[in-house]
Structures are given as C-alpha cells and as structure tokens.
C-alpha cells in the first residue's frame, strides 16, 4: 500500500523539489500540492492523503490553523510540519493542533524519508534536526495546558467537525454536503455550539475555535 502525500508549501521551488524527491521512492505517491493553508485543507478533505507535509508559515490560513482543521475534518491524515524555525513554541503549537511531528527544512533527504515512513507506520518521530527533548517537552506542555482549553472541550466530535468546517469558510450548505448530513442537522449543531461556547453567533464561535492554539 503506497503512502499518499499532500505537499502544502507556498514556496514553489521548495515544493517542486520536494515532490521530485518523493516521487523517486516507489512507496510514496504525491496526490496534490497546496500553495496556501486553505487550499491544503480543501485538498486534504477531498483526497484524504496518508501524510500532509505542512509548512508552518502559509498564506490565507497559517499552517498550524490549517493543521487543526485537517485533523478535525480528515482525522485519518497525519500531519508533519515543515519549517525553517526551531523554536519550541512553534513545535508545541503544532503538536497541540494535531501534528504528529515537525521537520526542519535543513534536514537531509534521508531524514525526510525516514520521518515520513515512521509517521505512516505510527512510530514516534524523532529527528536529529529537532531541538533536544522535543517529544518529551512538547507532550508535557500539551498535557499541562489541555485542561485549560476554552469551552471547546464541551463540544462533541461532530460539533467540533462542523465548527472546523465553518472556520475554514464553509457555508451551512457546504458543510452539509461535505459531511453528508442535512442542512437542518448542521443548523441544529451550530445552535448547540453557540450555546456551549456562550457566543452570539458564527463569527464569535469561529474566533473562539481559531483562538485555541
């Protein structure tokens, strides 16, 4: 079974070079390229890749927000963050958003391939190019802060999925079509979301969702 990959990277040269690297491997198949976070989300939901390689710094939707949306609406897809940065804050934010790992762009090609395959197999990701103690520190910080999540912890999985789609710009009809539910079902869920989050409407709910990072 091939590992299907979506590349989300706004720098064309790096994106194309990465695609060439991956397509030389028999077990890796690139199923799409995204130039911004919104496109990455749309393609991930449509094509359901095994792995999404997501740049942290993306236009329209930043990589961390796009990762959160993908993990909500396409949970089978695993996300690996790509960045030139090595600061712990970004790594922790990426993990909290649902990323499985974090690869610095100065990693060599063997390191890239090793991490992709390890992530697909569900193995813990540990890169020599990451800051020391990444896994231990990130997990500890995530566990420490998780109980402080704004009212989102009160939402059901379906409610979080609908709110994620709304945050990505989907209309009620778009959400209904995407999730294969009725328009009335979407409206009912949104009503419950507003009540649980104690907000007056869609905009406030989306801002609450995006602010949880």
The main sheet orders its strands as: 2-1-3-4-5
Shape: elongated
> What's the helix count?
10
How much strand content do the residues show? 5-15%
Termini gap:
34 Å
How many distinct beta strands? Answer: 5
Mean pLDDT: 83
For this structure, the CATH topology of the largest domain is Rossmann fold
Low-confidence stretches: 131-136, 145-149
CATH superfamily of the largest domain: Response regulator
H/E series = EHEHEHEHEHHHHHH
The helix content, as a percent range, equals 40-55%
Tell me the structural class: alpha/beta
Please outline the major beta sheet.
Answer: 5 strands, parallel
CATH architecture classification of the largest domain = 3-Layer(aba) Sandwich
Radius of gyration: 17 Å
Describe this structure in words.
By secondary structure, this protein is α/β, with parallel strands linked by helices. It folds into 2 domains: 3-146, 3-Layer(aba) Sandwich (Rossmann fold), CATH 3.40.50.2300; 151-211, Winged helix-like DNA-binding domain superfamily/Winged helix DNA-binding domain (Arc Repressor Mutant, subunit A, Orthogonal Bundle), CATH 1.10.10. It is built from 10 helices and 5 strands, in the order E-H-E-H-E-H-E-H-E-H-H-H-H-H-H. The chain has helices at 12-23, 37-47, 63-73, 88-97, 109-120, 134-145, 157-167, 172-179, 183-197, 202-211; strands spanning 3-8, 28-34, 51-55, 78-83, 101-104. The chain has a 5-stranded parallel beta sheet with strand order 2-1-3-4-5, with helices on both faces. The longest helix is centred in the last third of the chain and has 15 residues, at 183-197. The radius of gyration is 17 Å and the shape is elongated. It starts with a strand and ends with a helix. The model is unreliable at 131-136 and 145-149 (pLDDT under 50).
């Amino acid at each position: 079974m091939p590992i299907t990959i979506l590349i989300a990277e706004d720098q064309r040269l790096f994106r194309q070079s990465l695609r060439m690297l991956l397509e030389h491997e028999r077990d890796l198949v690139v199923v799409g390229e995204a130039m911004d976070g919104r496109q990455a989300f749309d393609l991930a939901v449509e094509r359901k890749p095994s792995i999404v390689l997501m740049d942290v710094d993306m236009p329209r939707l930043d990589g961390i927000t796009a990762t959160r949306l993908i993990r909500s609406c396409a949970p089978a897809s695993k996300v690996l963050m790509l960045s030139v940065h090595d600061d712990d804050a970004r790594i922790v934010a990426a993990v909290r958003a649902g990323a499985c790992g974090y690869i610095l762009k100065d990693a060599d090609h063997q390191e890239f391939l090793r991490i992709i395959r390890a992530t697909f197999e569900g193995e813990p990701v540990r890169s020599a190019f990451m800051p020391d103690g990444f896994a231990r520190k990130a997990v500890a910080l995530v566990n420490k802060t998780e109980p402080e999540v704004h009212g989102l912890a009160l939402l059901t999985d379906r409610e979080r999925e609908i709110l994620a789609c709304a945050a990505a710009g989907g209309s009620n009809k778009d959400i209904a079509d995407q999730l294969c539910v009725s328009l009335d079902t979407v409206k009912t869920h949104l009503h419950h979301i507003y009540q649980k989050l104690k907000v007056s409407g869609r905009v406030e709910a989306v801002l609450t969702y995006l602010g949880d990072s």
